[in-house]
Amino acid sequence: MRIPRSRARARARSRSRSTLRASTLAAALLLAGTALAGCGSGGPGGSDDGSLDVWVYQDASTKVQREVVKRFNKTSDIKAKLTQVPGEGYSDKMRTSMGTPNAPDVFFNWGGGSISDFVKKDMLLGLDPAMDKDPELKKAFIPTILDAGAIDGKHYGIPMRGMQPVILFYNKDVFTDAGARPPKSWDDLLKLIDTFKGEGVTPFALAGTDPWTELMWVEYLVDRYGGAGVFQKIQSQGMAAWDDPAVLKAAQTIKDLVDRGAFGKNYKSVNYTADGASTLFAKGKAAMHLMGSWEYANQKANQPAFAKSGLGWTTFPAVPGGSGDPKSVVGNPTNYWSINAKVKGDKQKAALEFVKFAARQDYSGDLIANGDVPATSDATSLLGKHENPDYARFQYDLVKRAPDFTLSWDQALPAKYTPPLHTTVQKLFNGQLGPAEFVDALKGM
Amino acid sequence: MADAATREPRPAHEPRPAHERRRSVGRSEVGWPGVGRPGVVWALPGALFFVFFAVAPMVLVGALAFTDWDGIGTPSWTGMSNWSRLWDDPETHQAIWLSLVLTVLTWVFQTPLALLLGVWAAGRQRNRAVLSAIFFLPLLGSSVALALVWKSLLDPNFGLIADIGPALGFADGDLLGSSKGAFGAVLFVTAWQFIPLHTLIYQGGARAIPRSLYDAAAIDGAGTVRQFFSITLPQLRNTIVTSSVIMVVGALTFFDTVLILTKGGPGTDTTIVPYLMYRNGFQAFDLGYASAVATILVVVATTVSLLLVRLTGFAAMRSTREGM
Predict the structure, then answer these.
(1) Is the Cβ of A118 closer than 8 Å to some Cβ of chain B?
(2) pLDDT band at A3 (very low <50, low <70, confident <90, very high)
């Protein structure tokens, strides 16, 4: 430290003060200038460099999209360039880049609420004209899945990943030990709660610190009590529509389940993201687990032996007096590609061509090889190649037969409702809100 | 370095401290009045950086607080509507209350421990260096990693809490699911992580206390406890203020631990102001309202630290070495 300082002093003496001040100023401006320029051009290529900028959520399934980009680039003059955004920050990054020159041309999303604000501002390309022109494209996908991502009946997304319905999983070994069979009706389910409590096993694993896992129960119960129309009305008419009796009935049922000890005593502290609930379930300390279809992949990674032979699955039963179709499912139908409305001309053609690749058999084959179940309507013949064909067929038929596939509420509603929805549901499960207060809280969102 | 400087008591004829020496050397070498002090221009790069990355965003946030903006498109001016909502929102009231309680408890919990540890670490006991190094470790981890570790430890079925929970009054290890337990967990984990920093500050402060004071006290017959209360504590007055300001402002802006450990739950019972701001800004994308919350946070944190500095007389920079 000492030497440079004395050198600086010597230099300072040899130069006149004004040149010093000027050069410092210049250096400072240069520094600030580069810093600012850095902010402006920090993002990926932008939409004006002739290539197609494709953004995807980065996780274990991203390799399927890497492959399709390679295949597409062999056929197209306009090359696709894949940007893989690490999962956690995906929504923020997408949100902040839209409407700036750094916005992607084609991007991954969850349909529904994740794009509804963009649609409101005309930032996405409507895909209905393209589907009318190319009826094969529309027919390529299971209709309920295509529609689940639509906004006000208009399509903005092409399904591009596996389907993720919520499934009632059960632990086969625990069921065998208790001499029990998977529930076919609500009565069965209530009886099973007592059976497993008698065995000292928690009937249902539930990750109470992650409210979206609790939301799955509410979604299924409302669907079984009042049908998919209840939530559709909430989506189209606003929060006052939470008034539907099915919502109150679902909330009362949840209170009943909690009081019966269906979720054990410490579910409020159990997490999903650090594998608390899944481990509980795999180790046989809980008999059943209501979870998205990714639970299979999750168990395979952490408890491979259990995933292979101990994991059973069934549908969510009907409820007494419910008017909903018990064949309906809730969950995440799939993920979608959407196209930025700013993409025009040849590039728009290329973008449409690119998203159509998701309808092709080779793409579905890649998804299956990756352990996903594709949302295309002709995938039946491919399912045998899945690592667990029984599970793949169960899932595929479950979804294909379902008259309605309700997108998870926290993703279907505009983003501003997500946090209050989560805390309200958590408070219902924790007993901080009674069923009637729960409905009032939802109406007040 | 600090070690070497304090190991031997400074002899009376030792030259003045470095900063005084430098100033006098500069003056005598150059000979012009005022030249020894670097010109304002030297502060320009730092000032520009601060303006672009701290002042400008803060001003923008202040402006956004009067708009409705969902992150895309153009913000629309809504006047005071965010503020009247802030005034009426029970969640915001709860968040402000929780933040204040957390700040006070953080100070009450961390200060005595850090002070005692720091004074102990300033000594010359056997194994002191090794133990100090171990105590220092939590500070080196990233908050996110530490919160994840604690989250696993607090898993009610497989974590440490499953065994010790009942003894702490949380049957079945249901700690993160109870309002008091989750709040206590945030308080404890952040303390565990930040006490080492404050220990370090107190260690430095305690090392700087002249040996001669203790020698004199020992001659007068003062024991260890008496020496601590009559010499160490008064001498550490400015250190305590520094540490407290860092602690209080830090506690008002705790975020990552809450995000990972409790997500503001159960319900909203650990949703402190910074987490509320995040929820509104980056989950609900209600950036106007989030900006209003952020503005409140900036104002409160600044006011509190200014008050602390004022009330403790720290601003006057009164020396603790007067007459020595």
Answers:
(1) yes
(2) very low
Q: How many helices (H) and strands (E) does chain A have?
A: 22, 11
Residue closest to A84 by CA, chosen among A99, A102, A104: A104
Predicted local distance difference test score (pLDDT) of residue B215: 92
Query: For the packed helices B128-140 and B179-207, what is the interaxial angle rounded to 10 degrees?
Result: 130
- Asked if the C-beta of B133 comes within 8 angstroms of chain A's C-beta atoms, the answer is no
- How many beta-carbon pairs below 8 A join chains A and B? 134
Nearest-by-CA chain B residue for A208: B177
Strand partners for A407: A331
Q: Does residue A47 have a pLDDT over 70?
A: no
The pLDDT of residue A49 is 66
Q: Is A1 on the interface with B (CB under 8 A)?
A: no
φ/ψ of residue A272, rounded to 5: -100, -40
Residue with tokens 């259990």: A306
Contact in structure between B257 and B141 (CB atoms under 8 Å): no
Nearest CB to B155 within list A211, A271, A418: A271
**Which residue of chain A is at minimal alpha-carbon distance from B284?**
A416
Distance of alpha carbon A380 from alpha carbon A394, whole angstroms: 11
A312 bridge partner residues = A170
> Per-residue pLDDT for A113 more than 60?
yes
What's the gap in Å between the CA of A112 and the closest CA on chain B? 15
Mean per-residue pLDDT over chain B, rounded: 85
Q: Give me Rg for the CA atoms of chain A.
A: 26
Q: What is the pTM of this model?
A: 0.83
Distance between A414 CA and the closest CA of chain B, angstroms:
8
**Taking residues A360-386, what's their average pLDDT?**
90
Backbone angles phi, psi at A86, to 5 degrees: -55, 135
Decide if B277 contacts B292 (C-beta within 8 A): no
pLDDT digits (tens, 9 = 90+) for A157-192: 999 999 999 999 999 999 999 999 999 999 999 999
Q: What pLDDT, in 10s, does the model give residues A192-233?
A: 999 999 999 999 999 999 999 999 999 999 999 999 999 999
Q: Which residues of A touch B268 (CB under 8 A)?
A: 423
B317 band by pLDDT with thresholds 50, 70 and 90: low
Strand order in the sheet with A80-86: A80-86, A52-58, A106-109, A336-339, A158-159
**Closest chain B C-alpha to A410 CA, distance in angstroms:** 11
B44 in contact with chain A, both atoms CB, cutoff 8 A: yes
Question: Is A35 part of the contact surface with chain B (CB cutoff 8 Å)?
Answer: yes
Q: Which residues in chain A are closer than 8 Å to B267, comparing Cβ atoms?
A: 423, 426-427, 430, 432
Whose tokens are 């005692």? That residue is B116
Give A279 to chain B, closest Cα distance, Å. Answer: 9
Q: Using DSSP, state whether A121 is helix, strand or coil.
A: coil
- pLDDT attached to residue A6: 36
Chain A nearest-CA distance from B218, in A, is 40
What span, in angstroms and rounded, lies between the C-alpha atoms of A391 and B258?
37
What span, in angstroms and rounded, lies between the C-alpha atoms of B30 and B23?
11
In this predicted structure, the answer to whether residue A24 has a pLDDT above a threshold of 70 is: no
